[in-house]
Specification:
The protein has 116 residues and is an all-alpha fold. The protein is elongated and about 55 Å long. The protein folds into 2 domains: 61 residues, no CATH class; 39 residues, no CATH class. It is 39% helix and 0% strand.
């Protein structure tokens, strides 16, 4: 996620300015909290509670992970479609997301294997 990458470099820059060595380590988004508990990763600064909250809170309950605060970046997990799809009624039933089940062909491309 863009916000996570940008903020990682901002936070890393702060640590570097304090004389610390910083290494940016790619980590599995679910397993990163156990990696912190095990000492393999030091910081994960962004938790999307709707998708990763369970693994984060499970790691906290085991000890070795703390919630050090919040920031103003908000999660937004939505589905979007181009307005022209609605205007041309190419997917009847939109904007109800269930309508997407019947119109994958509208969004498929020659290289998508029929998937929208």
């Amino acid at each position: 996620w863009s916000s996570q990458v940008v903020m990682a470099y901002v936070i890393g820059g702060i640590f570097e300015s304090m004389g610390n060595n910083v290494e940016y380590v790619p980590a599995d988004t679910q397993a990163v909290y156990e990696s912190i508990r095990n000492g393999d990763v030091t910081i994960s600064h962004e938790v999307w509670q709707s998708t990763f909250g369970k693994s984060f809170y499970n790691a906290m309950a085991k000890g070795g992970v703390i919630d050090a605060g919040t920031h103003t970046a908000l999660t937004l997990e939505e589905v979007g479609v181009p307005q022209w799809v609605i205007d041309k009624n190419l997917c009847p039933g939109l904007p109800d997301y269930k309508a997407l089940l019947n119109c994958a062909d509208v969004f498929s491309t020659p290289d998508s294997g029929g998937q929208g």
